[in-house]
């Protein structure tokens, strides 16, 4: 499972950073190396501690596995899109009703997959709010959590665009408890596959 492979590597890197006399250089190299494992060529352009976090700015080149025409489309879309730090209500509003419903059900499934017990909205809601999700999608997730979700039905015929919207939110939800179980891992892999 992905988490079993990654976690020891992360712990090793943290110890390396904590014991390094050249923490800045080591962290710059580590960030670039980890993104390199994903086929992304990245250069850190800014790195600074901020309160209890580290602020990192990156310059990213075309990933090795990315087609040149796809990369150009990505760059064009970014130039034409307004900047936003969250999954906006604009994005959600442009989706069809069936896409909105499927997205909410997918995210509800990931929440259900991450726990053995029935989901308690009062406990989950504050965590989801920290992800800056729109109120409409939160309402959809709340409704979808009331019934068990079937991953086979949700992932069957999933549109690549919807998978691309769902994946970053799904990763954020899965990492809320800082671990990935088999069901969550399978769902994330299915989202990646649907994007191809």
Give the topology.
Elements: H1 2-19, H2 23-37, E1 42-50, E2 53-60, H3 68-80, H4 89-94, H5 97-113, H6 121-129, H7 135-144, H8 151-155, H9 160-174, H10 182-194
Antiparallel strand pairs: 1-2
Provide tags for this entry.
single chain; 196 residues; mainly alpha; 2 domains; two-stranded antiparallel ribbon; 2 strands; globular
Characterization of this structure:
The protein has 196 residues and is mainly alpha-helical. It folds into 2 domains: 2-66, no CATH class; 82-194, no CATH class. It is 62% helix and 9% strand. The protein is built from 10 helices and 2 strands; from the N terminus they run ααββαααααααα. The chain has a two-stranded antiparallel sheet. Helix 1 packs antiparallel against helix 2 (23-37). The longest helix is centred in the first third of the chain and has 18 residues, at 2-19. The chain is globular, with a radius of gyration of 18 Å.
Quick recap of the structure?
The chain has 196 residues and is mainly alpha-helical. Helix content is 62%, strand content 9%. Strands 1-2 form a two-stranded antiparallel sheet.
């Amino acid at each position: 499972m992905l988490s079993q492979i990654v976690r020891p590597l992360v712990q090793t890197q943290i110890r390396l950073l904590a014991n390094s006399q050249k923490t800045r250089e080591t962290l710059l190299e580590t960030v670039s190396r980890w993104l390199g494992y994903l086929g992304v060529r990245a250069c850190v352009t800014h790195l600074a501690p901020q309160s209890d976090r580290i602020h990192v700015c990156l310059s990213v080149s075309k990933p090795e596995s990315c087609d040149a025409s796809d990369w150009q489309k990505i760059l064009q879309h970014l130039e034409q899109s307004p900047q936003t730090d969250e999954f906006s209500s604009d994005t959600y509003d442009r989706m069809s009703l069936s896409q909105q419903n499927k997205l909410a059900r997918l995210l509800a499934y990931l929440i259900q997959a991450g726990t053995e017990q029935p989901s308690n909205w009062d406990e989950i809601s504050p965590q989801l709010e920290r992800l800056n999700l729109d109120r409409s999608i939160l309402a959809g997730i709340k409704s979808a959590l009331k019934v068990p979700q079937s991953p086979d039905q949700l992932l069957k015929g999933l549109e690549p665009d919807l998978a691309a919207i769902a994946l970053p939110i799904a990763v954020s939800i899965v990492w809320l408890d800082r671990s990935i179980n088999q069901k969550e891992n399978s769902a994330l892999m299915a989202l990646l596959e649907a994007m191809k």
